[in-house]
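Model the whole thing, not chain by chain.
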Amino acid sequence: MVRMLAPAGSIEMACAAVEEGADIIYVGPLGFSRRPYESEMSDGAIREATEHARSRGAELRVVLNTFPTPFDVTRFLDKALQYAQFGASGFIVTDIGLMRALRRLLPDTVLHVSIGSGIGNAQDAAFYREAGADVIILPYRWDVAEIEAVRAASDIGLETFLFETVQTGKICPGKCIMSSYLRFRDWLDVEGSRDFHGSANRGAKECYRVCQANWEFGVPGAAPLELKLRRDARLMLAQLPAFVRGGVTCFKLSGRERPVAMIRDLVRFYRRAIDEVVGGASNLDHHADELAELRARWVREKSRRVDTLMDRAASYAV
Amino acid sequence: MFELSTDVGNLKELREGDFSAYDALYLGDFSCPDYPNNFSSHAELLEPGLELVKSRGQKAYLRLYAVPGNADLGWVEDLIDTALELPFDALEVHNLGLLRMLRDKGCRLPIHLGVFGNLYTHETAKVLKEYGVTRVYPNPELSLDEVRYIADNAAVEVLVPVHGKIPLVISETCFILEHSEEGDECGDGSCSYQCTQEHWLKRGRSDGSRADWSLKDTGRMTLSGKDLCMVEHAATLAGMGLKHFYVHNKGEARGYASQVGRIYRDALKRAFAGEAAGDAAEPLATLAGLAREGLCNGYYFEGAGQRYFGRT
């Protein structure tokens, strides 16, 4: 069965995504899902979102994809148990030790390996299967050949972001701590009191997306190039039929931090496209105009967000 | 008492460099298989490299490629097969797929988890021990208190970097080559080793409209601009019960490892003997002179990675 995961950075977004046909929505608890607090949810809101999703026949997964401090392990597991009691059907996790612990505590839950785990080959997928994971998200660089390699090595489920594959640049989720080297901020009250100082990878400190800002690059003494460290991935469409044929069963839309109206339109668009592919369509060219418009909106929003994050970074003390 | 280690990329560097201050050497550049005569990608060089290290009375750890894709698994497996026949003191892995491969091959050598293994919790260390991991290099974002907590609660050795650039990013592709005039993909034989020249990423503006940031780039890896420096905190490290210390050498000029190693050998020796630390001014001046962008303490004292906290 092919399913679509949609973001829910707020209750409004959760409702919109379910209304437009998302099979599963995902939410991030404050301080545990690598996003600024505006895109995360309180426990009360998560409970509300879970009840709403379930009442409409959808599921809710909880993003617990920080690498917590070792001091926070008990709290991490307690939160997961609470969300399971709310009715959450699964978790998106990064830390292997906590993945193993969750598998033992909640044997029937669905465990997704977060992109932050930095999976790079089929043997990695098999490793995570052994650690208790049910689903891996495909790295941004992977295409059909890599999907086939994983399927030959493991029976783990396959999920992909709805982005075209990208081969060049520094695309290193799970292998990057640039942001916290450069800037840090303390926890905000809204994120809850914590007894350690962390980074984007560890919760409340946002990633400033420094890889998407302009840098000067070169050898000292020579004229530098002005460039970004990575090229932005474009929303996917043409690759979708091949990925379904390859065995990808979960298509994930990112964007908890995006405007609700944009997520509503994207869920509606991809619901139609996925249903067509599942129904046998192999060519989605007739969606080209709509896709172009959505891509343009996506890029505009992304630029705005990177500017906001860089301004924030600049405003914090070194 | 304690172990001080550093890294050496290939046989030429090993032969020509002075690594006498170190107890152990990590052989190979884990970031780039195309680095010239890299121990991590040249099985035929393992035996002569190992012999040379052993002849100097040091331990030899072999570094495996940190970010192998599916296409790399074959050649890395061949290298592992060669290494398993040799008396290395340990293998270092960053990639969990390779760790699984080592387990399946019945590897009896100790395994060290490298910096890009994403070790943040003692719970993960416990899982990795089941695969043969005996030493972990915790993610640089962790504080000293967290590092010690992991060591104590997972009963595992921890490698504590004490000096050098902090590895921040690793990529499967070469950023230098992607932006060179040749512009060809790395790995197709066209690499002209431009990474032998220093490359920097800068983001400063004199008018203050941009934060003043600098990072060093070695092509597939981005490093901190500043050099981590813990020479003033040797007594703290010894007092915490930490015993395995490391100097990051990759990307530095010849002579760096030698100068830095001598300073840390002396500082750690005093600290572990319970002697008062010597005057830090001279060693600090030497270390600062080797660090183009200055010194920092990384994340050890719970702050952003660029900060430096002196002993007093």
